[in-house]
Specification:
alpha+beta; YaeB-like fold
Length: about 80
């Protein structure tokens, strides 16, 4: 199992969301501990941090995976219109 680390900025973004959306996103984040590369995830291109993204409706979770120490680092959570800016 991987350890989940949520950056303070991502935690703040998650708190701004409506409760029912935040709950489904939190469940999806928890599932990344078992499988950090679930079906439907994509590796983002043209970024220095080698981020991955996963969809939750109209929202996206951007995260990095460190396989050597088994950590999933959540960087951003937000609406698809705004998350990639």
């Amino acid at each position: 199992m991987y350890q989940i680390v949520v950056k303070p900025s991502a935690r703040k973004e998650l708190k701004k969301l409506p409760v029912f959306i935040a709950t489904s996103i939190a469940r999806k984040i928890d599932s990344l501990a078992k499988n950090p590369r679930p079906e439907g995830c994509k590796k983002l291109v043209n970024n220095k941090e080698e981020l991955w993204r996963i969809r939750v409706g109209d929202y996206r979770i951007l995260y990095a995976i460190d396989d050597s120490i088994r950590i999933v680092d959540i960087h951003h959570v937000g609406n698809r219109r705004e998350i990639y800016r």
